[in-house]
Amino acid sequence: MIPAVPSLPMIRRALEQHVPERQPHMGRASAVLIPLLQRTGGLDILFTERSMDLRAHPGQVSFPGGRVDPTDKDARAAALRESQEEVGLRAEHVEIIGELDDCPTFVTGFVITPVVGIIDPLALTSAGRYPWAPSPAEIASLHELPLSGFVDPANRRTEQRKHEGAIYELIWYTVQGTTVWGATARIVRQLVDLSLLQELQ
Question: Of the candidates 148, 29, 45, 27, which has an alpha carbon nearest to the alpha carbon of residue 87?
Answer without folding.
Answer: 45
